[in-house]
Amino acid sequence: MRLIFIGPPGVGKGTQAKRICDHFGILHLSTGDILREEISQNSLVGQAAKQVIDKGELVPDNVLLDIMAIRLSQNDCKKGYCLDGFPRTIPQAEGLEHILRNLQQSIDAVISIDANEKELIKRLVLRGNNSGRTDDTSDVAKQRLDVYWKQTAPLIEFYSRRNLLQSINGVGEIPDITQQILNGLS
User: Against a cut of 0.70, is the pTM above it?
Assistant: First the structure.
């Protein structure tokens, strides 16, 4: 099974993607984790990504597409995966389609999780306080949500037109949200 998780920052994409991956025994691929690994290694990609991420902006499409083309071609991706945080723009989604065609793969479903802005900002600030993430302050959280609505939310219609979209309310108990997702995938 190959899935994409989309939704605004702080909605619980990572939590739900991990739970769904555990359920199906597939790989969880978080572009955030991949990028944070590059940042911790102080690679050239990581240095460039950190400057952009710390402003609440998105890493350029060509950089992410190159990273994902390499990652999705690795052997551990053959049995399936959840993409968490990628794609985030229409050009990335189109680039992903091209990558998947070359790999003779396709996406089975796109899980779109949503919550209201007040709840999202509260979650992001709390996460920032608990984890020390530099991109989870109130001001940066608002900026990240603005970027999401301008650049990422159009993916909802993009994947809806492809009959791949499953919309989920991200407010509630974590196991209940997981069950909603599983119900939609069965």
Answer: yes
